[in-house]
Amino acid sequence: MTDQASCPEEAIWRDWLTGSGNVAVDEMVLQSHLDVCERCQGMVARLSADDPFLCQSREALRSTGLTSHDWQVGDADGADRSRSESSSPAIVSLVQTLLGPTEDERSLGRLGRFEILGVVGSGGMGIVLKARSIDMDRVVAIKIPQPQYWQSPETLLTLEREARSAAAVVHPNVISIYHVDRYRDVPYLVMPYLAGQSLEQRIRDSGPMPLDETLRITRQVASALAAAHACGVVHRDVKPANILLNAGTERAVLSDFGLAKVQTDATCTATGTFAGTPIYLSPEQASGCGAGPAGDIYSLGTVLWTMLVGQPPMSGMHTHAIVRRIADSQLPNLADHCRNLPDWVNRLIAKLHADVPADRPSAEQLTQWIEACQRHLAEGGSAPIPKELSVSETKRKRTTSIVAICLATLLIAGAGWMMFDAVGGVSGTATPQLNPQAVQPQAVQPQAVQPQAVQPQAVQPQAVQPTESGSSESTETAEFAVPPQSNSIADETDRYLDQLQTELDQLNQTTLPRWESKLQSLLPDPP
């Protein structure tokens, strides 16, 4: 128990939950206090009980075994990967409890037909081992679930889904799956061993990355996603820890399809929960609406942001505040963190982080964009960048939007004025009465009126005369009769509509081109 006098006030916990940015207490201090203080745990639970969003995100995170500490500064994606092939003694001891005896002094033990040579890394869901295949005498990577999942029936399903998803995508930038099996009832899968490091380790070790290297990695991952999406597979957890950089080459490989979903399989994720790493979620995932190919594109945009800045956006915020910011499309602006980047890079990030999934490019289109941007850099700016990222395109859309707003305002104002004028002007002015004599009954010639041609609203009882054959129309239609001034009002409305159409034609032919020319002159010229 902790001293209640040292507990933060309720207002601090409320601001902490909402991510308002007004919390004066250090984030790490608050999280450490919350871990040991039952009183504050109860207060936070009470404050979040009435917030459906916090309840949804808390339950989704609880189902994955993750806590807010998994997303602290320097560990943004929940992975605790070692910087070398020797991991912590605790993880090695856990792995050895699973392995069988071995005669190889270099081995930690045997897992089936594999000699385990070391622990490569450990993440939120699994542990990656370096192993040697006894049958093939080659070095491979083996992935096993974390010990807390060893008795979980769902774990095998998750690993098998990863194997199926990755095996369906054949691409040089997608990890291959050699084999899926169980050892002592613990599932594992065998993959190629790629000497090198993850993109997450690369960013942690070296900080912000050069633009050309960033574009190269982004293009390769986009190409991998294009191949996956073509097979109907959505990755749903694109993040730096799942992008492997092969040592000695410039090849980036997308791995860990454990959260992948075949688009026709609706059973992979329960309704109302999200899958993936909070910082790299898309808004639709953060809102619990599921993820499609556009969600992978959004996540890749956040990975691009992280490579350029050297750390993920919203670092230091707690999990629920991060998820809420993403759901509300409140990601920080890249230009505020990297001021020396070309403007088209900011526009590229904006395209990838579009609020509406349909407004984001496809993976294939993104690959083409980045190839053009790479040529633009390599040729010193002489090669054109994609028109979707150019200033002229942005300028044209901005001008069109301004003109459309002006036109809509004029139309509404003009239509409103004419309607007021049609019914008698401003409030307080009596509505003009039409002269009943304006429409004379005798204007309708008896011989020209056939029974089937007479409209009820235009027929007055006294205006119906016997026909030449001696028959007459019934006067019972009098109850449908409309006062004669109705025709006059319709005529007035038609006249005003004709006048409005004439003015709109004139506006479109002369005024709008003149406005557009002036707006173009006011906008800044492209650099």
**CATH class descriptor of the largest domain:** Mainly Alpha
The profile of the biggest β sheet is: 6 strands, antiparallel
Mean pLDDT reading: 74
Count of helical regions = 15
How many separate domains make up the residues? 4
E-strand count: 11
CATH fold-level assignment of the largest domain: Transferase(Phosphotransferase), domain 1
Give a description of the structure:
The chain has 4 domains: about 5-70, no CATH class; about 90-190, Phosphorylase Kinase, domain 1 (2-Layer Sandwich), CATH 3.30.200.20; about 195-390, Transferase(Phosphotransferase), domain 1, CATH 1.10.510.10; about 395-425 and about 480-525, no CATH class. Helices cover about 45% and strands about 10% of the residues. The protein has 15 helices and 11 strands. It has helices spanning about 10-20, 25-35, 40-50, 50-65, 90-100, 155-170, 200-205, 210-230, 285, 295-310, 320-325, 345-350, 365-380, 390-420, 485-520; strands spanning about 110, 115-120, 125-135, 140-145, 180-185, 185-190, 195-200, 235, 245, 250-255, 260. The chain has a 6-stranded antiparallel β-sheet. The protein has a 3-stranded antiparallel β-sheet with strand order 7-9-10. A hairpin with a 2-residue loop joins β5 (about 180-185) and β6. α1 packs across α3 and α8 runs antiparallel to α10. The longest helix is centred in the C-terminal third of the chain and has 38 residues, at about 485-520. The protein is globular, with a radius of gyration of 35 Å. It starts with 9 loop residues before the first helix and ends in a 5-residue tail after the last helix. The model is unreliable at about 60-85, about 265-275, about 425-435, about 435-445, about 460-465 and about 465-485 (pLDDT under 50).
